[in-house]
Design brief:
SH3 type barrels; 4 helices; 257 residues; mainly beta; endopeptidase fold (from Nostoc punctiforme); five-stranded antiparallel beta sheet
Length: 257
């Protein structure tokens, strides 16, 4: 089979087909993908949600039929909105994390292959986006989650993984990396014109976009830097209230909502 679905809580997506290779992202429970290359026990995949590519171990997913892959691409997508929920799958309890997908969810259960899994937790229909205020509330559930390069979970998350997951549980589809997200939406000229839910992007000395966060108000931003935190922001950039200095230089603001 050339398609698969993540049936574990969270699985590393690696740059190269090796356990010691850099983790570039993560798959969460229920996310589906296309297999585009094989090398020993490793599969290079393209994730359906954001078209991101990387390598995963064949022991860490379940194959699915092309028919199911195509149906998942066309049907309404539901995700979990609590930090952690428990489901019983194959006679074992599995924790699923905020932003995990629920394949073929019908309001009472979801399906993987021929197996129906009951679910009575909180969900979000991704066909119905929320307003900026609710998106800001969703962002705050990640407060104090530790920073992890390539992470997309409450137990470790990077800056663009954070923005992507907050937007996912709020009904919006963002690309994976900060520079990709900076090409989405429409431009906002000044920080004083920003609205709750706008994305701010920050550059390094070479002018490369290396960081992003979510505007809460014209002078506050929530972002993943060391941990998910709230700091001051202005036209210059992010002012870290703990370290009492500017840590990120503002490049641009984009409006997705």
């Amino acid at each position: 089979m050339n398609h698969g679905l993540c049936d574990l809580s969270v699985v590393p997506l690696r740059k190269e087909p090796d356990d010691s290779s850099e983790m570039v992202s993560q798959l969460l429970f229920g996310e589906h993908f296309e297999i585009i290359q094989s090398k020993r026990q490793w599969k290079k995949i393209r994730i359906a949600f954001d078209q991101y590519e990387g390598w995963i171990d064949e022991k860490q997913f379940s194959p699915i039929l092309l028919e199911d892959f195509n149906r998942l691409n066309k049907t309404a997508s539901y995700v979990t909105t609590e930090l952690i929920e428990l489901v019983r799958y194959n006679d074992r309890l599995i924790p699923i994390l905020a932003g995990s997908s629920l394949p073929f969810y019908n309001g009472q259960s979801f399906r993987i292959g021929s197996l129906s899994i009951p679910f009575d937790g909180k969900t979000k229909n991704c066909d119905h986006p929320v307003p900026g205020k609710k998106l800001a509330e969703n962002a705050c559930i990640y407060l104090n989650a530790p920073y992890l390069w390539g992470g997309r979970s409450p137990f470790g998350i990077d800056c663009s993984g954070f923005t992507q997951m907050v937007f996912k549980i709020s009904g919006y589809r963002l690309k994976r990396d900060a520079w990709q997200q900076a090409e989405q939406g429409i431009s906002v000229g000044l920080i004083t014109e920003a609205r709750t839910g706008d994305l701010a992007f920050f550059e390094n000395p070479d002018g490369k976009i290396v960081h992003t966060g979510i505007i809460l108000s014209p002078d506050e931003i929530i972002h993943a830097s060391g941990k998910v935190r709230i700091d001051k922001v202005d036209q210059q950039g992010i002012f870290n209230v703990t370290r009492k200095r500017y840590t990120h230089n503002l490049r641009l603001i984009r409006r997705i909502l």
